[in-house]
Amino acid sequence: MATGANLTDSDVKVSVTDVEPNIPEEIDIVDNFEMLKADDQTQAIVNRTSLSKNGFLSWKYVVLCSSFLSCFVVGVSYISFSIFYMYLVEHFDSDKASTGWIGSLYLATGNILGIVFSVFVKFYGCRVVAVIGGLTWCFGFAISVAAPSITCLYFSYGLVAGMGFNMVTLSSFVIVQQHFGKHRALAAGISAAGISAGTLSGGPIIGTLAVALGWRGALLILSGITLNCTLLGCFYRPIVSTPKRSIVKESQDSNKNDTKTTKGEGLGKVFAQLCKDMTNFALFRNRAFALFCAGTFFMNIGLVIFYQHTPSRAVSLGMEKEVAARLPAAIGIATLVARIIGSFIGDLKFVDRTLQCGICLGLGGILLIFNTLALSFATIALMGAAIGFLLGCALTVQTTALSDIVGVENIARAQAFVLVATGFGALIAVPLAGFIYDKTLDYSIPFYTGGSSQIFGGILVIIAAIAKRRQPKNKE
Residue 26: its pLDDT value, please? Predict the structure, then answer.
């Protein structure tokens, strides 16, 4: 997904860029609570650091569960536009290209602003970014309910909701990378499986609501669903890698420093870091990373065309909207299974996760081209499930493959650049396919275009895997 996937707390100022690559599997309990006679802030830091060595009691599993549920909402929202798309074209009597810009802006806005959000993650943590993102997301959908025109939806649905959507997505992916060292690929796969579960559920849920309440009623309920991400984001506790003997001392020192730091100075630091990150392209000296970003751009063109236009293609073949809305469920089931299987495969020591991602993307692109031969509900669902399975195997290791290329200490900034590439791919995909359909009244050429683009993206990622082998390996 991805988005295409191809993907982040706050009370303690620790970000991905501050965490060493060798993240401990568990953080020791602070034994001497009697010595901690500091203020409430110190005690709060100790409490956040006190994670049980019993895996079932470790807070990181609470974080993983919260991330999964947030990703579930992301999946529901992601696939929902493919349903709303059919109704918006009919309601506003607009062409597919113009209406497609709503979905493109929605998927692209936050991704293109990924660098900005990554800076917020660095200074304020995943928790704050996720909470604000959930509120923004809900607000954007809520005001879209009253939108009188397509133009208004460009702003409310595309820009406002799009920013919230991607703030939640970024923070949900990165927080898992922070908390897990060993089995990071598996943890990332479980988290990302929430997107597939949401895709599986989103089509039937939104389709049924749209039939019963109209697209405005369905969108209003969806805005309430996205508000849950604000609550889930509250569980994104930051990881603290501070030695237990120095917790009190460093906390007291930070209190003294905080009193000397004004809000203006804090915002100034954020702005300075933002300018630095937006003009810092040092990561692109890494050829593997540059190829990975380029591959993500081309991959996402095919992925977005496949996900967002499959129901519309079914309707163009004569199927009812209610029937077409069930197709994302078949795709979602296959993708969900693939994310779990793909994450297990990616966790094997002899597997190159970047190569896994590239091969699966290329094969998925080939099937996307042959998908044009499917003309019935059963064949479209079967081909969609096959494509979804390959995409799931690729996307489940995308963030971890990126981590393998640049190292965990650079993952926030690297993920931001990948999100920008993802955003530009999404920005082009939906209106491009809609424009071609408006001119030809046939979905074959848009799917040929998307499949070819995805194959090329997969080839670039495979080349990135080869280039990565020539650079020093990042230690886990």
Answer: 37
The burial class, CB within 10 Å (0-12 / 13-18 / 19+), for 246 is exposed
Instruction: Return d(Cα 46, Cα 240) in angstroms, integer.
Output: 9
What one-letter code names the amino acid at 142?
A
CA distance 442 to 375: 12
For the chain, give the number of residues.
476
Answer yes or no: are the C-beta atoms of 229 and 361 closer than 8 Å.
no
| Phi and psi at residue 238, to the nearest 5° | -75, 150
Tens of pLDDT, residue by residue over 328-338, are: 888 888 888 88
Question: Where residue 240 falls among pLDDT bands split at 50, 70, 90?
Answer: low
- What is the radius of gyration, based on Cα positions, of the chain? 22
Q: With pLDDT > 90 as the criterion, what percentage of the chain qualifies?
A: 33
- Supply φ then ψ for residue 5, to 5 degrees: -130, 30
Angle between helical axes of 398-406 and 287-316 (0-180°, round to 10): 170
Q: What pLDDT shows up at residue 163?
A: 92
User: 454 and 298 in contact (C-beta within 8 Å)?
Assistant: yes
Partners of residue 5 on adjacent β-strands: 2
Q: Rounded to whole angstroms, how far apart are CA atoms 412 and 392?
A: 22
352: Cβ–Cβ under 8 A, 6 or more apart, which residues? 465, 468, 469
Q: What are the helix (H) ranges across 234-319?
A: 247-260, 263-278, 287-316
